[in-house]
Amino acid sequence: MKKSLLCLLSVMVLGVVSVPAQQKESTPALTAAEQEKHTEEKHTKPILDELKLNNPEKEARVKEIVMAHLKALDAWHTENDAQIKALWGEFNKARSAQNETNWDAALAKIDGVYASFKPEHEKFLSELSTVLTPEQVETVKDVMTVNKVEVTFHAYGEIFHGLTDEHRAFILKNLKAAREEAIDAGTMNEKSAFFKKYKIRIEAYLTAHGFDVKQSYKDFVAKQKAEQGGKKAAAPAGEKK
């Protein structure tokens, strides 16, 4: 597998960077127990920081559940990533060619592969639910997907003007569905791919409800460029003052 899922979560959330070779050589080797504790802290701290449980017993149980799940997830992806990568390649190729039949076929195959992980997925959420409230379980999912639901939902509000409560409810429902699948992804790119899957559905829905999706994106990009240009133009004037 090209990158351990356990390493992935720390890169996504903590922004871990590589250590220069010389520095690595001078770092004392950790014992097995120290390495295990370090790994646990690295992957559970972002979640616990967001949960703010203030309950040592609950924190210990959440750590245990998360680490067991990530180990199972890592093992599953080691066995399935080659096939999954090829299928996402099919999806991207079909999407670029605007071939709806082929991208639907690729997504169906991807769903078929992930079906074998569903029992572990359900077990993970079920175990979390014995310790956390539904809202707190949502927080865990958000941390595992770098808050993509909130960020993307806000972006849709900025891009598409005139969204009704019904439109927003549809968008949010589909973004949460994307998150549900993305928590099982093996890389950050794959997590984003699951959101692209649901982006297609959202855009089709908006088109059916009278929105010009392509033009809305163009208008938004033009607005962003104009705002950036205005800030650059204003900077020298501010400096002269």
Q: Which properties best describe this structure?
A:
241 residues; 0% strand; mainly alpha; disordered N terminus
Describe the structure.
The protein is mostly helical and 241 residues long. Among the domains are: 51-131, no CATH class; 145-221. The chain has helices spanning 5-14, 21-26, 32-51, 56-96, 100-114, 118-129, 134-144, 148-159, 165-182, 188-208, 213-240. It is globular, with a radius of gyration of 21 Å. It starts with a helix and ends with a helix. The model is unreliable at 2-24 (pLDDT under 50).
What is the first-to-last residue Cα distance?
A: 56 Å
Please report the number of helical segments: 11
Gyration radius, rounded: 21 Å
- How do the SSEs run, as a string of H and E? HHHHHHHHHHH
Bin the strand percentage: under 5%
On the 0-100 scale, what is the average pLDDT? 87
Number of extended strands: 0
The description of the largest β-sheet is:
none
Tertiary shape: globular
Segments where pLDDT lies below 50 for 5+ residues? 2-24
Helix content percent band: over 70%
Structural class: mainly alpha
Q: Could you give a quick summary of the protein structure above?
A:
This protein is mostly helical and 241 residues long. It contains eleven helices and no strands.
Write the layout of secondary structure elements.
Elements lengths: L4 H10 L6 H6 L5 H20 L4 H41 L3 H15 L3 H12 L4 H11 L3 H12 L5 H18 L5 H21 L4 H28 L1
Helix pairs in contact: 1-3, 3-4, 3-7, 4-5, 4-6, 8-9, 9-10
